[in-house]
Amino acid sequence: MLARFITLASGTFGAAASSQFPEFSQQYLQRLGGAVDELRRFAAGFDADAAALGLTRQEALAQLAEGGAMGAQRAETMTGVLSRFQQLQADLAALQDLTPMQRVLSAARFSDPEVAAAAWASFQPAIPVSADGLIFAGGGVLAGVLAAGLLLSVLRLPFRALGLAA
Predict the structure, then answer these.
(1) In sequence order, which ranges of 53-130 are alpha helices (DSSP H)?
(2) Burial, 91: exposed, middle or buried (Cβ in 10 Å; 0-12, 13-18, 19+)?
(3) Can you give the residue range of the structural domain that contains 75?
(4) pTM (predicted TM-score)
(5) Which pLDDT band holds residue 165 (cuts at 50, 70, 90)?
(6) What's the DSSP call for residue 107?
(7) Is residue 166's pLDDT more than 60?
(8) Long-range contacts made by residues 50-54, C-beta under 8 angstroms, separation at least 24?
């Protein structure tokens, strides 16, 4: 009786948790798009400033780095911002046309901590009514039931060794 309850509870939890992925991934993509747009504006401003002085981005960064401690710190900061922009832009390009099922296979692209934290902070769980949500819920039930079965099997091992369990 307890084993059935644990299995049912695990399956229900798995369904509830995994069915949220399609919506979370959509919200992550919206936040990612906003971050890319903002960083694009920032990078374009930097590039425009560099171009006005007849410099490439790399030349402007090098020149900035030679401008004392503040310039070196600013060059390092800008290098990080531009690198993040390129990474987020690549992630967005790779994810934006994928279905939620395909996004699971690209889960490594959901790796920006700032974007993920912002998406998670505003995320509202919902009952899945889309086909993708229901498919994820079914996968979650299966994963939950399998996890419960594995856990119960491991917990029964000592009792089986003693001949106390069937």
Answers:
(1) 57-65, 68-95, 100-105, 113-122
(2) buried
(3) 32-124
(4) 0.73
(5) low
(6) G
(7) no
(8) none
